[in-house]
């Protein structure tokens, strides 16, 4: 039976979630841990997404996980039974990006929903998180294909396990739209306000910000918010926000009134002053590029090299991020630019050396001719110290 439900708004396979993943996996020890691939099963790169997730958990989190492939409901009987057996044995179940409606189509009226509730730890992120509530946003259909706003029935597993009639919305604080509102999993305020009116009266929207996890501990009936953002409980346009670090009773999820629970305590001064971690490899790349530019202007080659190496490491660290964006290519472009500029700096330095050496030699010859041997010796020592060999001719 499920003991812990973890809802992630995004960033489920990025450096920002490594620490939460490690703590969560500690709860199951060496018990089987699996990734369920259905939400992205329609994508041509599904195998690559699975491989990147497995590599992320092994390299970054320090845990081997398996992959349960259930990309369609009409699997051959042997494949289906193999997948169901793996799910029955798993105590840690993870599902993430893709399409919530695709996942629902291929989970509904199968043993999958029942097996989800049997796993000790359930971690559903992004698209998968949408499926656990009573209603789900058909994200692709509305945001990409232009269908009129509407809800689709979801699994309602969250209410089954907690008693809370939740509608779960990840990517709650999404800002990819720039000039247009893409909050609330790409709905924006106007569409969410309309759709909210179509929900049952008791429904509560559970919004999880990006790079944020909400841990619902069923034995202790407590809820903890970790990561970079917050948890929002919304009903009929009225919201309560719980920032990262907040802990609240499970009962608070079902009551968003002002008197329901005490306001969350503000972060400790040290936490409030801490610089927020980057939410994408693009942010990391921009920060390191600015650092590189400052070092280059100061002719600090060691700092330039350090910034370039850190960017290369960051690109590798964020390689498992399933968020589709141009950030990775942009980061690589900045890294290539750093390498080119370092090459130019080396070329300029190399070209300047002969002229510099000639000037020092000329000054030394002039010092010797004037019998200023102390200066001549000092200039000779400077040249030999730089790796040059100095051979003198006798002065007559």
Outline the fold blueprint.
Blueprint: E1 4-8, H1 18-25, E2 33-36, H2 46-61, E3 66-68, H3 77-89, E4 92-95, H4 100-107, H5 112-116, E5 121-125, H6 126-130, E6 135-136, H7 139-144, E7 152-153, H8 157-162, E8 166-169, H9 183-186, H10 188-196, E9 204-208, E10 212-217, E11 222-227, E12 230-235, E13 238-243, E14 247-249, H11 269-273, H12 281-297, H13 301-317, H14 327-369, H15 373-385
Parallel strand pairs: 1-5, 2-3, 2-4, 4-5, 8-9
Antiparallel strand pairs: 1-10, 6-7, 9-12, 10-11, 11-14, 12-13
Helix pairs in contact: 12-13, 12-14, 13-14, 14-15
Please describe what this structure looks like.
- This protein has 396 residues and is α/β, with parallel strands linked by helices.
- The protein folds into 2 domains: 4-273, 3-Layer(aba) Sandwich (Rossmann fold); 281-385.
- Helices cover 44% and strands 15% of the residues.
- A hairpin with a 4-residue loop joins β10 (212-217) and β11 (222-227).
- α12 packs antiparallel against α13, α13 packs antiparallel against α14 and α14 packs antiparallel against α15 (373-385).
- The protein starts with a strand and ends in an 11-residue tail after the last helix.
Task: Decide which structural class fits the backbone.
Answer: alpha/beta
Counting DSSP E segments of at least 2 residues, the number of strands comes to 14
Major beta-sheet overview: 8 strands, mixed
CATH architecture of the largest domain: 3-Layer(aba) Sandwich
N to C succession of SSEs: EHEHEHEHHEHEHEHEHHEEEEEEHHHHH
Q: Provide the domain count.
A: 2
Shape label = elongated
Which ranges are low-confidence, i.e. pLDDT below 50, for 5 or more consecutive residues?
258-275
Taking the alpha carbons of the first and last residues, their distance comes to 100 Å
